[in-house]
Amino acid sequence: MKKRIIVIVLTCSMAMKVGAQIYSYDRGVQLPTTSLYDTDMMNMQLRALAETAAIRKENYRRYSDMAFEAYNNNNWSNVIYYVNAALNTLYYSGTLYYIRGYAYEQLGNLRAAKKDYKTGKKYNCPEAVQALESLKAKRKHKTKN
């Protein structure tokens, strides 16, 4: 049994050594490396990525404009809807988190407001920092009474 295993191992290793030697004149064994680096395909993929990024950026701008318009009109449910749509484009803004947090606060969802204010603070939004401190003070004052 041991001899059989040794013979199999030696045969496999010899076959691998012989198979690993690929010469340029060996057309039947040569690997098709040119299809791995198809520049037309790469360029097409890069164009598609650029177009997708441009569409996402335009959608972000459009939804964030709608969110600010709803914020100015005190339409809190629309603020939340449009901020969610803007953030789903994978562009982030501390100000968007702040206005969504403010909308949540106006609707009475203080937990969600606090979460958004913290995220806005992480993205360096000064209004979110002030709103978070104000929310903490309100909660502290509420628990004292």
Short note summarizing the structure:
The protein has helices at residues 2-19, 39-72, 76-87, 94-107, 110-122, 126-144.
What is the secondary structure topology, with strand pairs?
Layout: H1 2-19, H2 39-72, H3 76-87, H4 94-107, H5 110-122, H6 126-144
CATH C-level category: Mainly Alpha
Radius of gyration: 30 Å
What is the count of β-strands? 0
Percent in helix: over 70%
Q: Which fold does the CATH topology refer to?
A: Serine Threonine Protein Phosphatase 5, Tetratricopeptide repeat
The share of residues in extended strands comes to under 5%
Count of helical regions: 6
CATH superfamily: Tetratricopeptide repeat domain
Report the end-to-end length measured between terminal Cα atoms. Answer: 86 Å
What's the overall average pLDDT, rounded?
A: 83
Structural domain count: 1
Name its key features.
Serine Threonine Protein Phosphatase 5, Tetratricopeptide repeat; 6 helices; mainly alpha; 145 residues
